[in-house]
Each structure stands twice: as structure tokens, then as C-alpha cells.
Amino acid sequence: MKYTQKELENMLAEFRACPAEPPWLDFKTGLKDPVQIAKYISGLANVAAYAGSTHGYLVWGVQDGTHTLVGTDFDPDVVLAEKKQPLRLWLRLVVKPQIQYEFYTFEIEGMKVVMLEVEAAYRQPVTFKGCAYVRIGSALTELSKTPKIAESIYRTVGHDWSAELVRGEGLDALDPDALAYAKQEFSLKHKGERCIEDMSEWDDITFLNKARLAIDGELTRACVLLLGKPEKAHLVRPAFARITWHLMDGEGNTLDFHHFGLPFLTGARDALAKIRSIMLRIMPEGAFMPVEIAQYDAWVLREALHNCIAHQDYEKRCDIVISEFPDRVVFANAGEFRPGSVEKAVFSNSRPRDYPNQQLIDAMVELNMIDTLGSGIRRMFMTQKKNFMPMPDYDLSDNEVKATVVGKVLDERFTRALIKKTDLPLDCVVALDAIQKGRKINRDMAVRLRKLGLVEGRFPHLFIASRLAAQADRVEDYLDSKGYDDTFYMQKVLEYICLKGKATRTQINGLIMKHLPNTLADAQKRTKVGNLLSLKMKKRFGWIDNVGNDRKSMWILTDRGVSECKRKNPNCKRTCKRSESGK
Q1: Gap between the Cα atoms of 404 and 306, Å rounded
Q2: Which one, of 518, 507, 500, lies nearest residue 579 by Cα?
Q3: 448 burial type by CB count under 10 A (0-12 exposed, 13-18 middle, 19+ buried)
Q4: Within this chain, do residues 135 and 120 fall inside the same structural domain, yes or no?
């Protein structure tokens, strides 16, 4: 239950003490019609957004006008709606979008009271069966008849949730340890600046104003989120604020987990402390001692999590999730990736004009939690480059942002190349990182890397160049990536048919595909073999021909093929079993 009995009693007392019902509050005694209840959910949600309230309320058991407590026999758990569906289930189907609302049943002075709390509309009106309502005075009307209110609700798209004030709350809502830690981080952020000289004379409210956590002495939601006591989480509702750390095995099974609530300033620190980091060792070319590389850079992990906190869409009521695997850590938050693309975030000096949680972001910058000017992601990439580790990966699908920090050496050639060539530009490093992960890069970058002698292969199937492979003492890997010249494959086909007399496509696939570059997928390998047989060996050179039908076709040598085989293979005269159907 969201509220305790005492909290519900206090809320009811406040409602009854109102001289007149505000637009977001209505008292009822006998309302039981599911259709009317659904319309009230729509009407109260929409008018609450217009009136600046976080919620609307419908209360059964209080007399309208006099506010006298009379009790009610209404029970939301027994009322049935259309097709005898339970009321709660039916409401979920007919009220859109699916906002938060909840019935609370309790007794006071021996009488039953039912309170319906409805979340205010946000970004779009709340509708019942496609029609939006609003409460005007004591009556419900269609929202379309009040364009001013409708326009106000749609304007909440640019609304900064984190800047809203938490009325009536003071310093006792804040965690003392988090507040002390915030002052410490503020001092580090502004070290050497003139304002720090006066900081010892500030009281706590002045500090909160300076740190963008309060506005004119009033606490913001950003302040509660970062410094609030755990029991004050209701002050940011209907938003949801929680960080969840999962320890995963290699198969994706959860081995352990822990939740971290308010305050996020210290909760994030404690969540990061759960992540373990070992030392990796790699032997540079010509060295006698290995270089030790930390599996994870502490600053990179910190930046990734703090970015999740800064850009989370808290009103989607999702956890910020840290998933720790044996070889990687994945940070996930609900919301948009405001730069639009990772490339823009890493290589562009521009930043988005606005962020949904601008107040929260400003406060986090002041508390040394995130970089200013949107440079944090670029710095993450630069730090990974400096540590000779793979670049971070971003997944921007499914209305969430997932940032993966890899904690292992994927390809020693890549790592050793960074150790030897520390001045390599970041965009080249990102491209090489893509190649080591089996991804394609654009043609201009491929040309650039080729001129630098960093890659080989036919575009777009590139691989690390032989020079780098030799540096890494992994020539066998290089050959597996490079493959062989077409002459090698054609000679093997000629010799095979020479010995067998004829060959099926399946037999030739088995003969050739295992020698093709491992950068090619199986489908690409089959295409390569097909082109080799049909376009080169048959049409261009005339060495082989295909006989039989589609189901039982065979490749055989032609006269030109026999001559070529004899030229290449001195034993051909003794071993050739050329089919009689050959040409």
C-alpha cells in the first residue's frame, strides 16, 4: 500500500478542511457506475495537469458541499463493468494512456472511506474510450470544449519535471550524510574559485540555492532525488526513483541483485561499489614485462551511471539498471538519447538545446557528478582509448538507452596497436574498434585506414592489417582473416574434380568454404564459391562445366580444364578421372 492509515487520515482531513472543492478534488457518496468513474479519472487527470497539481482525487464517503463524513458502501473490488469484467481490469483497458491511479479503502470514525488517487496528465490528455474529459466546477465536460485547458496540457511536453518545487518541505527531508557529501563535491568542482572562500559562511539553504538544488529556498524534485531521505521517496511520485544492480552469469542468469533508492548522490556511489574490477595483462611488442590494464576505469563507470540518472525519464516509472556480466557492464535508463546519435555526441562540439531534466543536470554539474557542455561521452571514449580498451557501445532501441562498457581484450592486435600508436586520432580508433567487433565502417574511413596501413581486405570486409598482426605475433589470425587468392581456390577445385571425375556443389562448398576469410558469413561464403565456379572457372576460363539437372547437377572438367590441370599438376595424367560427359 502506498500510504499508511495515518497518512490517509491526514490527507482526508486536509481535503475536508478546504473551504471549497478545488478542481482536482471531488466528494461522492453513492457513485458506482463504471462509465462515470472512468470519465472522472479522465477529467481529474486533465484538470490536475491544468491546475498544476500532481494528482486528482475522488473520495467516496464525504458529503459534497458540507464535507461531512458519512461513509460509503462502494467497493471497487466487487463492482463489475462491461461484460462482467472487474472494475480495475476494465479501467486499464478503456483509460488511455495508462497513467497511475489507485483505490484506497480505509475506515475512520467507524465509517468506510474510499479514495481514488489519479496521476495528472502529462504530455497528452487522458481519455476514456478515445474521448478526453475535464472537471469544470462540479461537472464533467468534454475537453474539446475547453481549448485553453487542452492547450495547457499539450504544453507540458517541454516541462522540466525535476525543477518542480516540493512545497512545505525543509531540510528535515534531506539525508545529512548526502548533504555533507554534496558540499564536499561542490568544493571539489569549484576548487580555486572565489565562491569557495565564502562557502564556510553559507547556511544550508544558501548552499542548496548555489548548487541549483533549491529555488529561492524551496527544495526542487532534483534536490529530493539527489539528497532526499529514503522515506521521502513519495515526494517525487508519481515518478519512480530506484537504481538496481544485477550480477549476471555468462548465460544471462541473475546471481545476485540489490536496490538503491534515495538519496541518489550516495546511492549511485554505493551501487558502483558493487562492480568488481580485475587487472588484465598484455605483452606489448618487444617488451619483457606485461602491461597491466584495469578491467574497468572507475571514472567511465561513474560517468555512465550518472548519465543514466541525469537523463532518465522518471515518469515512465522504470528502474535505472546496472547489469554486471563477467566481461562487461551494461547501464540502462528509460528515455531518449538527446544528442540523437553516438557519433554526434563523440565528435561534435554542439549539444542539444534543451534537456528534459535541466534542473537536475545543472545540479549534477555543480556537484561534480557529470561533465558540463555535454562532453562526458566523448571523454568516456577518450579514457577507454588511453586505457587501450574497447570503446563503449550504445543501444538506443526500445525507448531506452543502454551503454555497455566492455571489460576484456577483444582482439590483442587492436590493444597492442593502441599501446604502440598512442597518437592515433579518436575517429580512427572508433573505426578500428568497429572492425574488431565485426562491424562495417564507411568507405571514406576505410580508405583513410588503408593509407595509414592499419587495415587490409576488400571493402566492406576489412580486417586488421598484416603489419599490425606481425606486431602482435598473431600471423595465423591474420591469415584466417585474410583468406587466400582466388588462384588457390580454383586450383583446389581442379585437383578435386581431377581425382573424383565430378563433384557436386555441396562437395565443393565443403572443400572451399573452410579456407575462406572468417570475416565472411556462411551465406557470403556460399555466394563467393558460386561466383568462383560460374563466373570465373566456367564463363571466364572455360575450365569446368555443369551437367545434369538442378537436383543432380555435377561439375566436370572441360578439355581446357584438363589442360590447365596437367599444366599445374604433373601427376594429372596418372590420377585424372575425367567424366565421359565432359567436353
Answers
A1: 14
A2: 500
A3: middle
A4: yes
* Burial (0-12, 13-18, 19+ Cβ within 10 Å), 549: exposed
Q: Give the chain's domain count.
A: 3
pLDDT grade, residue 157 (50/70/90)?
very low
Residue 101 has pLDDT above 80, yes or no: yes
Reference 538, options 513, 564, 575, 567; nearest CA is 564
Contacts 24+ apart (CB under 8 A), 169-172: 169/219, 169/224, 169/232, 169/235, 170/219, 171/204, 171/205
Mean pLDDT of 72-97: 91
More confident residue, 316 or 207: 207
Same domain for 559 and 468: no
Whether 444 and 557 map to the same domain: the answer is: no
Contact 48, 24 (CB under 8 A): yes
Q: List Cβ<8 Å contacts ≥24 apart for 348-357.
A: 354/158, 355/310, 355/311, 356/160, 356/161, 356/311, 356/313, 357/160, 357/161, 357/162, 357/222, 357/310, 357/311, 357/312, 357/314
* Cα 478 from Cα 41, distance rounded (Å): 66
**Model confidence at 62, in pLDDT bands (50, 70, 90)?**
very high
User: Are 441 and 568 found together in one domain?
Assistant: no
Q: Domain containing 136 — which CATH number?
A: 3.30.950
Lowest mean pLDDT among 6-15, 35-44, 181-190, 341-350: 341-350
191 in a domain, yes or no?
Answer: no
Task: Tell me if residue 248 falls in helix, strand or coil.
Answer: strand
Can you tell me which residue has the cell 568544493? 187
The predicted model scores a pTM of 0.59
Question: What would the grid cell of residue 248 be?
Answer: 549476471
Distance in Å from the first CA to the final CA of the chain: 87
Alpha-carbon distance 416 to 426, whole Å? 16
Asked whether residue 428 is domain-assigned, the answer is yes
pLDDT of 469 reads 47
Max avg pLDDT among 150-164, 281-295, 380-394, 470-484: 380-394
Residue 398: inside a domain: no
